[in-house]
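stage 2 :: seqdesign
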């Protein structure tokens, strides 16, 4: 009898449990937020559409949920989600958008409790983009158009007075005024939109004469045509003179003096008829005087480019004219020469008339052990006619030219030992007398005075 009662009670308990499962249990959802203990789970959010600027940022959305707990997540990596109060019926979702570097983008944030779901659509504006970050202008001035793309309004402002801007729709017009100086210049235009900025760098060539031919792919950045309109001496803003006594280098016999000095009524350098003249002469004191000038580009020098000078060389045994380059900065204690590098674009010694040469000096090749990289050519008229001497200098090679004809070609192996020509150098013109090379076969003072004439010097760099 007792066992029958026990079996009956067990059956009643089993039926009761089955009915409870059928009538209640976990939250459910009809897709619109139904469910809940004894009713529907509902999810509400304070915003269902959010827009972020391209710069990114944070946005907070309040959440209410009748379920026991809820969560939220994003379907895009650029949008991070932080949940607060997920075990309470009220809480919040904080969304953090990273900066957008491209076009408009969209993400979906899903708020979920059981099977109940609510979605938030997040849109981020496209980033500010300009069609060019660098533009180049001729020296005479011109207007250059740049396309601007962004999610809203934008403005443009120049940082120098020779640049002006004009906005029309999505087009920015940048206008450069004529450059009247013999040095290239740089300005910037800043485009701003909704907290973003884009900077456009504007490079303008230096003032140029009509007959200047710019090599393909290059722009004129500095030059001197040695116009008499600027006076009879070099512009000290562009040039500096050496002031050194005989024996300073290479056992040379001349005393270098600034062209601004007068020695027996003469100048070591002077501008005459549109030419820079470097004069070498014997003074009444029996000393030899000459000039050496350096162009350092405001102390910055130049790294790589196409450099050309048109020159007429002097005659006479003992002359040693040179057009060459040295690094702007040399650690003479720890680096020194030739490890620092030296580029000789053109040299000639008077005891070998009309033979011009180009040489490179480095730790791995220099004249002290006859390993220098050198090319020479007798052009027949170096001392009677003007010729154009040029160098094309890149990170990968150095090539020199005489009247457009290749003289020397040297490829970089990208080692300091063999190619220390990977830093800013400055230009040098000088007329030496005698010395270890110029005076190798003696000197003939009856040739004095002599003059080295330079028609122009031009520096071009790649665009």
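stage 2 :: out
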């Amino acid at each position: 009898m007792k066992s029958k009662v026990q079996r009956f009670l067990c059956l009643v308990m089993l039926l009761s449990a089955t009915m409870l499962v059928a009538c209640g249990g976990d939250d459910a959802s009809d897709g619109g937020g139904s469910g809940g203990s004894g009713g529907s789970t509902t999810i509400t959010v304070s915003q269902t559409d959010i827009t972020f600027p391209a710069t990114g940022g944070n946005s907070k959305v309040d959440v209410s949920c009748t379920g026991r707990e809820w969560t939220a997540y994003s379907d895009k990596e650029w949008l991070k989600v932080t949940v607060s109060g997920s075990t309470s019926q009220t809480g919040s979702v904080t969304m953090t958008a990273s900066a957008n570097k491209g076009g408009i983008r969209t993400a979906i944030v899903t708020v979920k409790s059981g099977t109940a779901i609510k979605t938030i659509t997040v849109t981020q504006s496209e980033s500010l983009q300009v069609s060019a970050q660098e533009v180049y202008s001729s020296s005479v001035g011109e207007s250059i158009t740049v396309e601007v793309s962004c999610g809203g309004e934008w403005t443009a402002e120049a940082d120098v007075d020779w640049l002006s801007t004009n906005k029309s729709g999505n087009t920015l017009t940048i206008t450069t005024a004529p450059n009247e100086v013999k040095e290239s210049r740089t300005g910037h235009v800043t485009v701003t939109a909704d907290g973003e900025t884009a900077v456009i760098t504007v490079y303008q060539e230096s003032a140029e004469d009509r007959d200047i031919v710019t090599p393909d792919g290059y722009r004129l950045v500095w030059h001197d045509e040695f116009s008499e309109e600027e006076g009879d001496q070099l512009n000290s803003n562009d040039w500096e003179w050496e002031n050194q006594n005989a024996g300073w280098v290479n056992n040379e016999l001349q005393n270098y003096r600034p062209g601004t000095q007068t020695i027996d009524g003469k100048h070591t350098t002077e501008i005459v008829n549109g030419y820079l003249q470097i004069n070498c002469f014997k003074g009444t004191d029996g000393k030899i005087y000459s000039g050496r000038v350096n162009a350092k580009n405001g102390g910055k020098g130049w790294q790589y480019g196409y450099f050309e000078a048109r020159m007429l060389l002097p005659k006479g045994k003992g002359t040693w004219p040179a057009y060459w380059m040295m690094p702007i900065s040399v650690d003479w204690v720890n680096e020194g020469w030739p490890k620092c590098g030296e580029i000789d674009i053109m040299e000639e010694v008077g005891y070998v008339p009309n033979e011009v040469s180009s040489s490179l000096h480095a730790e791995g090749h220099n004249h002290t052990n006859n390993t220098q990289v050198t090319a020479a050519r007798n052009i027949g008229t170096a001392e009677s006619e003007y010729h154009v001497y040029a160098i094309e200098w890149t990170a990968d090679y150095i090539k020199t030219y005489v009247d457009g004809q290749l003289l020397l070609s040297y490829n970089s192996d990208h080692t300091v030992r063999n190619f220390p020509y990977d830093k800013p150098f400055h230009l040098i013109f000088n007329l030496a007398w005698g010395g270890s090379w110029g005076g190798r076969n003696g000197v003939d003072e009856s040739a004095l005075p002599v003059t080295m004439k330079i028609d122009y010097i031009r520096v071009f760099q790649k665009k």
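stage 3 :: structure notes
- The longest strand covers residues 450-462.
- The mean pLDDT is 90.
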